[in-house]
Amino acid sequence: MQRLCPVTRNESSDTLQYRKAVSSAVLTTFAQASKIVVGFLILKLIALYLGPDGLGKLGHFMSLTSILALLAGGGISHGVIKYSAEYRKDKFSLYRLLSTASAFAFVFSALLALLFLLFSRPISIFILGDGNLAWVISSLSVFQLILAFNMLFSSVANGLADVKSFAFAQIIGNLLSLPFAWLLISKFGLSGAAIAIISILAMAAFPSLYLYLRSSLRFRFRRRKIDPTLLKKLSWFSLMLCVSAIAFPVVEIYIRQSLISNSGYTQAGIWQGLIRLSSAYLGFFSVFLASYFMPMISQTNNKKEIESLTLKFIVFVMIVFAVGGGVLYFWRDFFVPLLLSNEFEELNNFLIYQLIGDFFKASNYVIGFIAVARAATRVYIISEVFQAGLFVFLTFLIGRFIVGAEGVTIAYMISYIICFFFGVVVLKFWVRS
């Protein structure tokens, strides 16, 4: 049958790109949704079996796990995504990137594992309050070697726009971790919950390994020499992510310890419940921006174009968060007992402060990714230190008048409102300079 309207090559190409973008968005959404759902279910299990006190005791360990999840492999994930995207049509440069990145990741992870093995007991006493749980810290040090491999695989998959492989590894890994985590938490209490938290992150490595062994990149990680120039570039990304990985979790540990000392484990546990709720849905925005926004602004040097894209993504993030946050807030009497337990009912009184803070934090992510994509190390580090320092300062200032988790949450809200508007001013200055 003759076509009524002939389709040009450009039109068919645009259609294919559109379909690919929609498909990628759906797959990424499913992958992140599986992570959020499994994260909530495991949080529910911890809240159900251990209560606010148990969640408070695990708070430091969750922060430590967050640090190691980002530091695994040297924290070069954003750099690998950026340069994989740039070298996707240059196999020689791509394979050299893989060799350099894998060497960097292995050495960094091996040194980190050695450090944690040597100091497992004192770390266990500070983090878990029990030197007899040093074996948990030792297990974490070994698991982060597995996390390093998964970081490399997922970063390369993202950079090469192979969203299908990335999503498959994440979904299968999340599903595998759930029954394992339930068994550990129900049978072994605090120590079992600690291992369950590690398993959520590590399980994705198994489907990643399966996909890697079936891919064309198999063994390419070791077939090229290490490139000193690439090594230097990756080290800047490592420095940025190391500061980001350490700054806020360390602040969390510091503030949580203050809460424990002044208000007890229950208040610390309630605040930890809020943090875990936040990290679940904020993770969606982080993955979305890393997968779509960062590659887009990495490929252009036009500041006006970057500004336009940034404003569009900020508006998109704000709308999506406002809808989701509104549902969570107005149905909080349903969601909080469902996701945590009835013992966390107190956080309903100040959930609004956390949601407002998260609204501006998610919006500020968009601006922060510009610094990552442009490898603006100094700007990124200054902003991370500023955010962490401001949060601590406001927490202790407001804590004089409003005690417990509520005061901390109000400080969180104010600090990220300030940081967002400061980021907008810096963006405008950068575009016009």
From TrEMBL:
> InterPro entries from the xrefs?
Poly_Biosynth_Transport, Polysacc_synth, WzxE
Gene Ontology cellular-component terms for this entry are: plasma membrane
| Location in or out of the cell | Cell membrane
Where are its TM segments located?
21-49, 61-81, 93-120, 132-153, 165-185, 191-213, 234-255, 275-297, 309-331, 351-373, 385-403, 409-431
Task: Give GO BP annotations, semicolon-separated.
Answer: enterobacterial common antigen biosynthetic process
Asked if the keyword Cell division belongs to this entry, the reply reads no
Q: Cross-referenced Pfam families, in alphabetical order?
A: Polysacc_synt
Membrane topology designation: Multi-pass membrane protein
Instruction: Establish whether keyword Lyase is in the entry.
Output: no
Q: Which CDD domains match?
A: MATE_like_10 (cd13125)
- Which keywords does the record carry? Cell membrane, Membrane, Transmembrane, Transmembrane helix
- In terms of superkingdom, the source organism counts as Bacteria
Where is this protein chiefly located?
Answer: membrane
The cross-references to PANTHER family, in alphabetical order and at most eight, read: LIPID III FLIPPASE (PTHR30250:SF30), PST FAMILY PREDICTED COLANIC ACID TRANSPORTER (PTHR30250)
Q: What is this protein called?
A: O-antigen translocase
Q: Which organism is it from?
A: Pseudomonas fluorescens
The opening ranks of the lineage are: Bacteria, Pseudomonadati, Pseudomonadota, Gammaproteobacteria, Pseudomonadales
